[in-house]
């Protein structure tokens, strides 16, 4: 599972990471965010006729055929790698609409319910991570509003990650970006070893989706006994 992550990078960093993006005439304003929760708008990289483009998408995929309200789609912010090719929710996007979701880090929790300790996990070298993702477009029937949405694909945890959680985001290597985005690569890309990772404990303020996601102190290491675990509020992950 991946229920929270971070996107904090400069325009120059994301262009280089994307090998590169198709640079628009004007650079978009990139706001660093350190605790992104599901249904929030995030950056995704998609393949278009012009090249690779950075777009915005709601985190929590809504398939194009969905007839109910957006908030009734369920927990589609993650898609399991072993089911992504045959799930009704994700099959069409896996075949036709893949994306890369850049991430500075992601979070997982250890400990019993009510005393969850958040761990921030990033690339060991401090670089960006490339989460394998899917996207789709959906039109809200009552309003006619078109919404682009996405999901992060998850896989079984590797040996290192299994000490924290039994699942982790599927991460792509730069040499596989083309094959993933153009669809010539299959699920084997999702099972490749991730880059070397590192982790540290952060503030339990991350436990609440109400914590401002633009607060850089959420990424700072803390001693686990330095503060009392924050009880999640209704609508949080725990």
Secondary-structure blueprint:
Elements lengths: L4 E3 L3 H7 L15 E4 L4 E8 L2 E9 L18 E3 L10 H6 L1 E6 L1 E6 L6 E7 L5 E11 L6 E11 L10 E3 L7 H6 L14 E5 L37
Parallel strand pairs: 4-10, 5-10
Antiparallel strand pairs: 1-2, 1-7, 3-4, 6-9, 7-8, 8-12, 9-10, 10-11
Question: What would you note in describing this structure?
Answer:
Helix content is 8%, strand content 32%. It has 238 residues and is mainly beta. The chain has a single domain, classed as SOS response associated peptidase-like (hypothetical protein yedk fold), CATH 3.90.1680.10. Strands 3, 4, 5, 6, 9, 10 and 11 form a 7-stranded mixed sheet that branches. It has a 5-stranded antiparallel sheet with strand order 2-1-7-8-12, with no helix packed on it. The longest helix has 7 residues, at 11-17. It is globular and about 45 Å long. The protein starts with a strand and ends in a 37-residue tail after the last strand. Mean pLDDT is 91; it is low at 228-235.
Distance between the termini: 13 Å
Number of domains: 1
State the low-pLDDT regions, or none: 228-235
Q: Let me know the CATH homologous superfamily.
A: SOS response associated peptidase-like
Tell me the CATH architecture: Alpha-Beta Complex
Shape: globular
How is the quaternary structure best described? single chain
- Mean of the pLDDT scores? 91
Helicity level: under 10%
Beta-sheet strand percentage? 25-35%
Instruction: State the CATH topology.
Output: hypothetical protein yedk fold
Structural class: mainly beta
What is the CATH class name?
Answer: Alpha Beta
> Would you count the extended β strands for me?
12
Output the helix-strand order: EHEEEEHEEEEEEHE
Tally of alpha and pi helices:
3
């Amino acid at each position: 599972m991946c229920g929270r992550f971070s996107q904090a990078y400069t325009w120059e960093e994301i262009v280089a990471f994307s090998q590169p993006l198709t640079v628009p005439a004007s650079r978009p304003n990139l706001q660093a965010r350190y605790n992104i929760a599901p249904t929030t708008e995030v950056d995704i990289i998609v393949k278009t006729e012009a090249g690779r483009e950075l777009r915005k998408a709601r985190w929590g995929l809504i398939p194009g055929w969905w007839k109910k309200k957006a908030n009734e789609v369920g927990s589609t912010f993650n898609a399991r790698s072993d089911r992504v090719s045959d799930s009704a929710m994700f099959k069409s996007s896996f075949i036709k609409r893949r994306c890369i979701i850049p991430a500075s880090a992601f979070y997982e929790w250890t400990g019993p319910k009510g005393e969850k300790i958040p761990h921030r996990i990033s690339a060991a070298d401090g670089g960006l991570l490339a989460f394998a993702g899917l996207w789709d477009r959906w039109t809200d029937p009552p309003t006619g509003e078109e919404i682009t949405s996405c999901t992060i694909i998850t896989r079984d945890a590797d040996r290192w990650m299994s000490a924290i959680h039994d699942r982790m985001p599927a991460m792509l290597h730069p040499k596989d970006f083309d094959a993933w985005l153009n669809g010539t690569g299959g699920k084997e890309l999702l099972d490749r070893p991730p880059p070397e990772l590192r982790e540290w404990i952060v503030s339990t303020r991350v436990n609440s989706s109400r914590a401002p996601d633009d607060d850089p102190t959420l990424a700072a290491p803390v001693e686990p006994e330095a503060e009392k675990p924050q009880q999640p509020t209704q609508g949080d992950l725990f």
